[in-house]
Task: inverse folding
C-alpha cells in the first residue's frame, strides 16, 4: 500500500488545516517517545494473545448435522471488476447515475501480488451545497466477477458473483472554537486577530466540559485506500475470530464468505483532513485499490486498538498517535530501528539514574562540596512545571509522574538542609537551616557567590522574556501568563541551575563529592535525547536545549579529568579514604595481637 505521506491535501481557500501544537506539548512528546513505543508494543501483543486464547468458545456441534466450514467464494487470481461511487445517501441503488460513478476498473486479479492488482486514481470532487452545509458523503465500492453486473435490476445479475461495502468519506469532528487567548495589555490589533484565529478542539486540551454541547463539522478525507484481504481460511460456521467477524460478509444460501473489503485509514493523518464549508469549491481525491495480507491488516488493527486503550487510560493524547505514525512515514527506516532499540535503553537508564539518585541522598551524611541551593532551585523548577501541566489539563499519567518528581525534589531538600516546623504563630511555618557540614566549610561561601551572580543573570532573562511574552503573545489570564513565562524560562535556562555546582568544583579543585554513578546514567540519557532530537519533530528551541545539557556534562567530565582524587575528602556515603585505611589497620593490629596471645 502506498503511504499517503507525500499526497497533496492542501488548504482550501485559506482554511487552516490544524493549529500548531504548543511548544511544551511537543517537548513532552519528544521526551516520552520511547515509553510510547514500548507501551504500544506491549498492548498490541496483549490484544493478539487475548484474541487467541479468550475468544468465544465454539458451540458444540450437533451430531445429527455435519459440521460446515465456510470458505471463500472467490479463487486466487480470479479477475474482478470494480465500481466506485460517491453518494450523499448511506444506501445506494442508483447504478445508472453517471455523476455518482467516480471510477470503474476491470480485470483486477484477486489476491495476486502483481502490479496489475493495484489501481490508483487522482481526481477532483466538486461538493454539492448540501455537503457544504455540514452534509454527509459515503463511498460505495462494488466488486463482481469480470463480465457480471452489480446492478440488481440487470437481468444477468447474480448475487453469488458480486459484493460491496460502504464507508463514509466525510467524517465529523468537533468544530473549531474561537481562541480564548487575548492580549493582556489590551492591544486592539491583537484582539481583532484573536477573533479570526481558531484553534482545534482536541481531546483533553479543550475546555468542552465548561461549554456544554459541542458542534461538529464535516471534514473531507482526501485519501481513500481500499484493500482486498488475501484470506482463504476455512472458518467454522460459529467459530469466526471476533476480530475478523465484523468484516466477514457471509452469503446466506451457501454459508460461504465473500472476499473481505477494508477501507484502510491507518496512514490517514488528521492534519490531512480538509474542512468542508461554503468556501470550498473542489476537493482532491486520491483513490487506491490494492491487496493486503491478513498479517499486515491484523497488525494495523491491533495497533489502532492499542492507541485507543492508551487514550482511554489517559497515557496518550488524541494527536500523539498521528505524530508517532508521522515518524514512521517521514523518518529514515534504519534510524528508526536504532531509535527503537535505544529507546529501551533510555527506559533502563532512567530507572538506574532514579535508583542511584535516591540511594545517594538517602545515604549521604555530609553536604561538603554539594550545592544546597541548587537542590532548592530544582524543586522550584519542578513545581513550576507541575503547575503548568495542571493548568493545561495534561493527562493524569504525566501529572502523576511530574508530581512524584516534585515530592522527590522536596525530600532532597530535607536531606540537604535541616527543616523545622515553627508553631509560634497562628499558622505553622517551615524553617530551613543549613547543615553543619555545609556551613562550616568553604562550600557555603562558594555556593553563595555562585547564586549571587546567577540570580542577576536569571532575573534579567526571566524579566526580559516575560515582558516580551506579555507584549507580543496572547494568554488566557494573568495566571496563565505567569506560569507560561516561568515554564518557558525553565525550559530555556534550566541548564544554568547546574552552574553553581561547577563553580564549587572549580573552587574546591575536587569532584569526589558528586554522585557520579547517577550522573553517568543521566549523561547516557542525554546522548539518547540527542538522537531523538533528529528523529522527533520539535521546536528548534527545545532541540538546542538538548545539546546545551551536553555542554554542561562535558564540563563535568573535564573537571573529573583535571582534578585528582582526594583520598582525605569524604565520599557520597560520608566516609573518607584515609579513615577507612586507619580503621582497617587497627583491626589488622588487633587480630595480630590475638594470634600472638
Result:
Amino acid at each position: 500500500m502506498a503511504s499517503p505521506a507525500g499526497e497533496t491535501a492542501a488548504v482550501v481557500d485559506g482554511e487552516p488545516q490544524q493549529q500548531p501544537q504548543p511548544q511544551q506539548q511537543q517537548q513532552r512528546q519528544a521526551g516520552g517517545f520511547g515509553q510510547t513505543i514500548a507501551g504500544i508494543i506491549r498492548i498490541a501483543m496483549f490484544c493478539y494473545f487475548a484474541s487467541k486464547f479468550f475468544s468465544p468458545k465454539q458451540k458444540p456441534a450437533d451430531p445429527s448435522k455435519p459440521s460446515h466450514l465456510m470458505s471463500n467464494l472467490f479463487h486466487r487470481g480470479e479477475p474482478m471488476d470494480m465500481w466506485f461511487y460517491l453518494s450523499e445517501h448511506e444506501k445506494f441503488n442508483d447504478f445508472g447515475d453517471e455523476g455518482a460513478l467516480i471510477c470503474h476498473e476491470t480485470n483486477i486479479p484477486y489476491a495476486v501480488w502483481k502490479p496489475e492488482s493495484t489501481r490508483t486514481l487522482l481526481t477532483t470532487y466538486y461538493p454539492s451545497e448540501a455537503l457544504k452545509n455540514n452534509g454527509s458523503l459515503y463511498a460505495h465500492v462494488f466488486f463482481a466477477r469480470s463480465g457480471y453486473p452489480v446492478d440488481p435490476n440487470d437481468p444477468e445479475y447474480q448475487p453469488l458473483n458480486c459484493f460491496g461495502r460502504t464507508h463514509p468519506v466525510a467524517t465529523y469532528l468537533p468544530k473549531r472554537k474561537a481562541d480564548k487567548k487575548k492580549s493582556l495589555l489590551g492591544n486592539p490589533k491583537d484582539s481583532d486577530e484573536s477573533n479570526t484565529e481558531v484553534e482545534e478542539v482536541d481531546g483533553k486540551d479543550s475546555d468542552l466540559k465548561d461549554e456544554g454541547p459541542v458542534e461538529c463539522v464535516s471534514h473531507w478525507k482526501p485519501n481513500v485506500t481500499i484493500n482486498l484481504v488475501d484470506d482463504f481460511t476455512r472458518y467454522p460456521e460459529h467459530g469466526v475470530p471476533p476480530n475478523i467477524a465484523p468484516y466477514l460478509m457471509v452469503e446466506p444460501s451457501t454459508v460461504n464468505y465473500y472476499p473481505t473489503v477494508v477501507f484502510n485509514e491507518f496512514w490517514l493523518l488528521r492534519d490531512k483532513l480538509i474542512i468542508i464549508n461554503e468556501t470550498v469549491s473542489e476537493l482532491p481525491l486520491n483513490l487506491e485499490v490494492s491487496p493486503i495480507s491478513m498479517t499486515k491488516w491484523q497488525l494495523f488493527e491491533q495497533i489502532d486498538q492499542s492507541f485507543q486503550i492508551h487514550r482511554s487510560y489517559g497515557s496518550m493524547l488524541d494527536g500523539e498517535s498521528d505524530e508517532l505514525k508521522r515518524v514512521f512515514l517521514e523518518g529514515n527506516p534504519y534510524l528508526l530501528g536504532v531509535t527503537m532499540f535505544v529507546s529501551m535503553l533510555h527506559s533502563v537508564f532512567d530507572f538506574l539514574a532514579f535508583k542511584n539518585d535516591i540511594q545517594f541522598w538517602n545515604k549521604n551524611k555530609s553536604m561538603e562540596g554539594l550545592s544546597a541551593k541548587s537542590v532548592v532551585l530544582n524543586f522550584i523548577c519542578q513545581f513550576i512545571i507541575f503547575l503548568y501541566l495542571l493548568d493545561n489539563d495534561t493527562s493524569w499519567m504525566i501529572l502523576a509522574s511530574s508530581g512524584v518528581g516534585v515530592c522527590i525534589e522536596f525530600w532532597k531538600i530535607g536531606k540537604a538542609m535541616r527543616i523545622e516546623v515553627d508553631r509560634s504563630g497562628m499558622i505553622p511555618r517551615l524553617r530551613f537551616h543549613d547543615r553543619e557540614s555545609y556551613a562550616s566549610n568553604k562550600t557555603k561561601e562558594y555556593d553563595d557567590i555562585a547564586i549571587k551572580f546567577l540570580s542577576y543573570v536569571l532575573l534579567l532573562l526571566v524579566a526580559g522574556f516575560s515582558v516580551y511574552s506579555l507584549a507580543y503573545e496572547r494568554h488566557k489570564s494573568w495566571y496563565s501568563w505567569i506560569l507560561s513565562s516561568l515554564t518557558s524560562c525553565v525550559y530555556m535556562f534550566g541548564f544554568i541551575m547546574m552552574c553553581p555546582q561547577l563553580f564549587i568544583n572549580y573552587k574546591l579543585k575536587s569532584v569526589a563529592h558528586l554522585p557520579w554513578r547517577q550522573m553517568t546514567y543521566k549523561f547516557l540519557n542525554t546522548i539518547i535525547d540527542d538522537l531523538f532530537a533528529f528523529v522527533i519533530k520539535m521546536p528548534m528551541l527545545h532541540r538546542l536545549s538538548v545539546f546545551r545539557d551536553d555542554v554542561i556534562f562535558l564540563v563535568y567530565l573535564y573537571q573529573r579529568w583535571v582534578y585528582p582524587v582526594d583520598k582525605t575528602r569524604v565520599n557520597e556515603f560520608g566516609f573518607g579514604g584515609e579513615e577507612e585505611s586507619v580503621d582497617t589497620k587497627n583491626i589488622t593490629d588487633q587480630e595480630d595481637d590475638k594470634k600472638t596471645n
About this structure: The mean pLDDT is 75.
